[in-house]
Amino acid sequence: MPLWQIESLDKLRLENIVKRYDDWVLQLDLHLRNGEIMTLLGPSGCGKTTTLRIIAGFIHVDRGHIFLDNTIIDDVPPYLRNIGVVFQDYALFPHLNVFKNIAFGMRMKKTYTRQQIRQRVAELLALVGLEDYEQRYPDQLSGGEQQRIALLRAIAPHPDILLLDEPLSALDFQLRKRLRQEIKNVQRRLGITMLYITHDQEEALSISDRIAVMRNGHVEQIGTPVEIYQHPQTKYVAQFVGISNVLSGTISQVEQGRFLVQSRPYQFRIPAHKGYARHDDITFFFRPEDGYLSIQPQEENTIRGKIIAHEYLGAEILTSVESVDHQTYIVSNYIKNEVFIEHEGQEVFINFPASACKIIEREV
Predict the structure, then answer these.
(1) What are the two backbone dihedrals, phi and then psi, of residue 6, each rounded to the nearest 5 degrees?
(2) How do beta strands 193-198 and 266-271 pair?
(3) Which site among 137, 200, 297, 339 is 20 to 30 Å from 49 CA-CA?
(4) Do 70 and 7 touch, CB atoms closer than 8 A?
(5) What's CA 340's distance to the chain center, in Å?
(6) What is the pLDDT of residues 313-326, one digit of tens each?
(7) pLDDT in tens, 180-189
(8) pLDDT tens profile 78-116
(9) CA quadruple 185, 45, 238, 232: dihedral positive or negative?
C-alpha cells in the first residue's frame, strides 16, 4: 500500500511528542485511525490526561508535531481545532437547560441556522432516548443523564475527534457498564473518531477498537483488546491488564514444539517461541481462569501450595495460593461446587496446561 494511503487512514497523529516537567517526561508517538475508538489505559500519573490536553491544545509540547487529517495543528488554538472534549465532571452549564447546553457549541460556531440547531439537538436526544428533556436543567438530571448530555454537547458541532477524560468515573458500577455500551453505540452510529481515557481495565477492553497501555509517560503497547489481554508484550502489561501469574526460569530442553523450563523447585512445559533457545532465561504467565485446583496433580504443569485467601465474586471465586517457595498465585474457579470455598490452609495443587502459558517478550 502506498505511503499516502496508509497516512490517510490516520485521523490524528502525534509524532515524536515530548513534554518535560521538573520530575517527569511525556514521550510518545500515537496514531488514531479514522472512525475508531482508541483508549489510553493506565494508572494515575502515567500521562493519559496530559496526552488528551496536548491534543486539545490546552498544553503546548516541547518537541514533536500533532497532525489532524495530515495537517499540523501545533499552533492552532483549542477553539479552532474542531475537537470535542467530555470532561470527568461533565462541566454542564447550570443556568442553561438541556437544549441550550447541547446547542452551545453550534451557536458559538455561528455557521448553523436555528433550524439546523433545533434539528441536530432533537436527533441527538432521540439517539440516547432523552427526547423530552430539552427544558430540564442539569440539577434536574441524574448522573447518567448528565453524562449523556455532556456527550451530546461535545458531539453536536460535528467535531473531527471526540476526547473523553474518565467520563464514567463518578458513576456507580452498573450505570458505568450500561453507559459505556451506549457511548460505543453512539460512536458507531455517528462514525465519530474517539479517544477515550480510563484507568479501568474492563472499561477499556469492552469499549475499544484498540488500546494504548501507558506507563510513566510512554506507551508500553498498542493493540486490540484481544492482543493486549492474550499477548502482552511486557511484564507490566501482563500484570496491569487483568490478573497474571508470572513465572520465570531457564530453558533446559526443546522438544516437539515446546520448551522445558526449569523454575526451581518446578519444571514447566510451555509452547516454544521464536527467538529463544536452550539455556535462555524466559518469563511467561498464565491467567487465573486458565488454572484450576485439585487435591492431586492433574496436569503436566502443577504448583503445590496451600490456600491462603479467597475472594467471592458471585459467579466466580478468586483463590490465592501460596506455593512451597512462598510465591502467591491466583486461580479463578467458576462456581460449580463448593469444594474449595472457605478452606483456607488446605493443601492443593494448581494445574494449568502448557497451552495456557504465554511468553512475555524480552524488554529492550
Answers:
(1) -65, -45
(2) unpaired
(3) 137
(4) yes
(5) 32
(6) 877 889 999 999 99
(7) 999 999 999 9
(8) 999 999 999 888 789 999 999 999 999 999 999 999 999
(9) positive
